[in-house]
Amino acid sequence: MSRRARVIRTPEHIDVELRPAGPGSRFLAFLVDASFALAVALFLQRLLDPFVPEGLGLAVWLTLQFVIGWGYHIYFETRRAGRSPGKQLLGLRVVDGRGFQLGVEQSFVRNTLRVLDAAPVFYGLGGLVALFDAAGRRLGDLAADTLVVRETFDQQALARTLGGGDATSLRVPRVVRQARRRIGLEEREFLTALCLRADALEPRARFDLFESVAADYRQRLQLEEDRLSGEKLVRGVASILFWDRRHADRRQRA
Q1: Helix 57-79 and helix 104-112: axis angle, to 10°?
Q2: pLDDT tens by residue, 75-92
Q3: Distance CA 57, CA 210 (A)
């Protein structure tokens, strides 16, 4: 079954396209993540072995496997923008049905149902359900309203689109710290989408939208910069956040 892209329209009338990941890339990402989680569990088991009473070794091992395997996914889905090491390697991420980052409750539901998805063996039920779902979702995805998507944009092209070269006055430590602290993932995604789709807007609508968004960020980030147009300011802020995210991803891979 072909996978249909899901188009989300934001309140600002910006269309964001979510392209579901295929079963092959999801399977490979799962193998990478399972290997990471298993390695962590084995390491902890060796550390705990001397303190485990005789006869309880198997029970402790199975508990470790479950807790780490379950917590591993929840951590990366809620704290790393849906990118586990396996998903990041394959260019995937998990998002909620509107394209936003998962909340703890959604991730809890999604990963608790892995037990059903894994039945009877090796994700047989989950794979069967995903095969007949247009978005390739397993039971956990359906229950939590989540979606594994492909990240297809070119990072360098995106950097050029965001620009920010005329907004070097924003690249000061105080503004960068304020942006990191006060602008969440959903807003970063919105700013990126707005910059990417600016050329498709009518000139007057484009001007009004950027000025409105810029006015909000001037206040929230305490910006006294008034020489920049609304669009240049928004692109400057988006560029700061984009490079901040790239550096964070590089540090995570290092």
Answers
A1: 140
A2: 999 888 788 999 988 889
A3: 61
